[in-house]
Specification:
Number of strands: 17
Number of domains: 1
Shape: globular
Order of helices and strands: EHEHEHEHEEHEEHEEHEEEHEEHEHHEHH
Radius of gyration: 20 Å
Structural class: alpha/beta
Helix content: 40-55%
Strand order of the largest sheet: 3-2-1-4-5-9-14
Strand content: 15-25%
């Protein structure tokens, strides 16, 4: 990571940083950049990680739904990066709500109680996904009226809580605005920024890439394969989080803002899946089905899994059918303007690194 992400070390003294979910894919990448920057970092996760120990990171083990443990963990922190979440496309809504929504509210409360200055929150573009094509939309797009999965729904609720904590309020027409005081950057209190990275991938990925490789033999292209999506390489996603913190220090009036971040160049989804399969030494997807057929199959499988209380995850769901057959890429000019975000690692270079890491492993 140090070879590609060149974050300048600040002239100020090192900061105390807490990263929730520091043992995860994105959390570790953020922590590595923070350590390189010279900060004192604490990771708050359920597990203990030798890789973080080797970096000299203080590790606090705890659950994101434990408000007391969180309040103790954030004590003394200047900035909190809230990365921890329950991801996935299937599962009990209560579990997603407890971790993603209530957990985030606990983080906000802990930050306010302990006088933390800044909170950088990792959200997802799926919070505004309405099941149709989204091409070049910006942060003004509203939240949909309904969701087909618990993950985006509970992340949307969490995101709104972070926006409100940062001084934003939602209008009757769905638009968000800040008070005049917040726009001028006056006053004390918690300042927040929300980032929406889409499909994070790269070496060390323990979610997206493994799912594609494990299901290679069963994958079917949904639709004509011409739908384009945004993706983001892990190093670029991590860098964006640090840029958000720096921007918030310099421009506190950004508090409560939300930003899409990506590679800046949408890719054909099924070409990207084939490229990941190739990086893993596997053949491309050859079979296909229509979006409507995939959606119907997903609806039926969801019904069976719920009715029979089946364990595991359906091979297809309505949410996945729509995600795999529609275009969803986003305008990142706001992040470029306000945060100075520019992706350092291209998709092509990222794929070369992914192939090398998979071959070595």
């Amino acid at each position: 990571m140090e070879e590609t992400i060149r974050m300048k070390k600040p002239n100020t003294s090192p900061k105390n940083i807490l990263v929730t979910g520091g043992g995860g894919f994105l959390g570790k990448a953020i922590i590595k950049l923070l350590i390189h920057r010279g900060d004192r970092v604490t990771s708050y996760s359920r597990g203990y990680y030798t890789e973080l120990e080797a970096l000299g990171v203080k590790q606090v083990q705890g659950d994101i739904s434990d408000p007391i443990a969180l309040e103790n963990a954030v004590k003394g922190a200047d900035t909190v990066y809230h990365v921890a979440a329950k991801a996935g496309v299937w599962g009990d809504y209560k579990d997603y709500y407890r971790i993603n929504t209530e957990g985030t509210r606990h983080v906000i409360a802990a930050c306010k109680s302990r006088g933390v200055s800044r909170l950088i929150y990792t959200s997802s573009p799926s919070v505004v996904f309405d099941g149709g094509d989204m091409e070049g939309v910006d942060e003004s797009v509203p939240y949909p009226g309904s969701y087909h999965a618990a993950y985006p729904q509970t992340k949307a609720l969490a995101e709104q809580a972070v926006r409100q904590a940062g001084g934003r309020s939602q209008m009757a027409d769905g638009r968000w605005q800040g008070t005049e005081k917040k726009r001028q950057g006056e006053g004390e209190g918690l300042k927040t920024i929300i980032l929406r990275p889409h499909l994070i991938w790269g070496p060390g990925d323990n979610h997206l890439v493994p799912r594609i490789l494990e299901r290679a033999k069963h994958l079917r292209r949904i639709g004509d394969g011409k739908n384009r999506v945004d993706v983001i390489y892990i190093d670029n996603a991590a860098k964006a989080h640090l840029l958000a913190e720096v921007a918030l220090i310099r421009q506190p009036e950004l508090s409560g803002n939300v930003y899409f971040i990506s590679q800046g160049k949408p890719v054909f989804l099924w070409k990207m899946i084939d490229d990941i399969l190739q990086a893993g030494g596997l053949s491309p997807v050859e079979r296909s089905m229509s979006p409507n057929a995939a959606y119907r199959i997903g609806a039926v499988l969801e019904w069976f899994y719920k009715a029979l209380a089946l364990k595991g995850e359906p091979r297809m769901t309505r949410f996945v059918a729509r995600e795999l057959s529609t275009s969803h890429w986003f305008d990142i000019r706001a992040a470029q303007r306000d945060l100075g975000y520019v992706p350092d690692v291209s998709t092509e270079e990222g794929l070369r690194r992914l192939a090398a890491s998979l071959k070595a492993r």
